[in-house]
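Input for the complex:
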Amino acid sequence: MTLVLDARHVAAISRHGEADYPAEACGLIGGAVEAHRKVAVQLVPLANQRTDSARNRYLIDPESFRRAQEKLERDGLEVLGVYHSHPDHPPAPSAFDREHAWPWLSYVIVGVERGRAGEMKSWVLAEDRGSFDQEPITTEERKVVWQ
Amino acid sequence: MAVTVLIPTPLRPFVGGRDALELEGESVGELLDRLTGEHVALKPHLFATDGRLRSFVNVYVNDRDIRQLSQRETPVKPGDTVSIIPSIAGGTSVAEELPKLSHEEILRYSRHLILPDVGVEGQKKLKAARVLLVGAGGLGSPAALYLAAAGVGTLGLVDFDVVDKTNLQRQILHGTSTVGVSKLESARARINDLNPNVRVETFETHLTSENALDIIREFDIVADGTDNFPTRYLVNDACVLLDKPNVYGSIFRFEGQASVFHAKRGPCYRCLYAEPPPPGLVPSCAEGGVLGVLPGIIGSIQAMETIKLILGAGQPLIGRLVLFDALKLEFRELKLEKDPDCPVCGAHPTVTELIDYQAFCGIGAEPSYDGAEITAQDLRDEWQGNPDLLVVDVREPHEYEIAHIDGAVPIPLGELPDRLAELDGHREIVTHCHHGARSFKALEILKSAGFSKVRSLRGGIDAWAVNVDPSLPRY
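Predicted:
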């Protein structure tokens, strides 16, 4: 599958990562599946629930997930993935990310070096949970309903 | 009719793309077994290799989390809806650099390690944590002992005092063998004995506007065990400015209170108490007394809240104030709101750096009492030469029972304004109390009522017991 992001999504994820630096920022990506493409339509920025070590951990609790999922479903969308930032670290999943990952979802990671957002990559957990595989991101400039 | 099991998007590819399944079963465990039996590929995503539900997999029966019910044993009946709801966690690899635990530590903390909310990762977080205790006294004692025992890696201690025998009734960090030793050294020895894995960093100083930011900046969490208002406001403001959680406790006689102030997530101490009380209105423990067990209870609550913040477990005491009444053995809880106009954590703060907290709390330069004080020895000599001299004891009746100066007239400070008629303004008057503070207030009352020949016994009955009459007990 390919993850299709609007240019404005890329900018918004970067801004969110910069705003919450040095803590990790996180949110959900809502959209629809078309053939072999996951097409993002809406981002749902969420508060990082981790207070103990927000610098290197993020958490979206089940209540937030459920509310976001319900909101997306009302718009006819589904949760395609999750984005989060890696402050002062490259946008590659850690072993911790893999240990806690859900299958199928796209895990978009943006590296934020000293407060400036850099590279963005997307990863998907292998079905046997053995690895995290990079997934192509296509950025398109489209007219979309989005907030 | 069966139970409806709602499947979240990431798991739908494993159940033929469906968002809900109808399954038969009596309990959540049975339903999940049936689900993973029919769709084997689901199993590794729901269960860890030890067979337990993965920590980020949440199962709700109707609207309730089974962790709050009976876990796998939670019963279900036809018509119920069981939802599998993801929580999403992750992060950079930094956290993998959490300190390792030695074999000795694994054994020492085994009762923590088997708790699901602590476990190895939680214990490592405790080891990596840096907690600052302001005050190694009544509240700091139990807090320091429990935090050290729990394996908090670094404990900072701020205190400037020396262990005094009157501390031992409640300050269990210290002992008879360390009377006369600095509290920090006494604390270090006790903590090292309890848990040599703990690093103790000491700051033998008053916390001041000049040093507070530098000291607090180096720690993750502050536990405030101070006994005076200027320091309490100082700790609060410094924590707000540095975005540190401030685990607050305070005690008086038989009552205590505790809360967690973290301005980013809730109110701060100033949202609760915008202004300090006028100086002298609230007596300190030294003046008012305190039941020794009380700081044990409140300081232990502070230790508990500190550990919860480190672990990220449970509901922290943010936005709530716990009031404890020892005589009724009653805990009450007040909801605290963030004050939008709070001068330090509100929308438009006016306090953006540390201020002069002594002045803020109305504790200005000591008023000048030149010639208004008399030492214990001078009083003895003068009294012998002038038996007409009147000594007025302004302490409470129960203090008079502990020890008193023969010949002194007891008039408690609170009754003094109404009992001025009992005093002869032509006689020399010396007021005295326990240590010399209340007798100054008595002196002011007398002076403003027109008494001119009034002085106060410096150091109170305590100085008298030391220098004049050693047969009196000190307290």
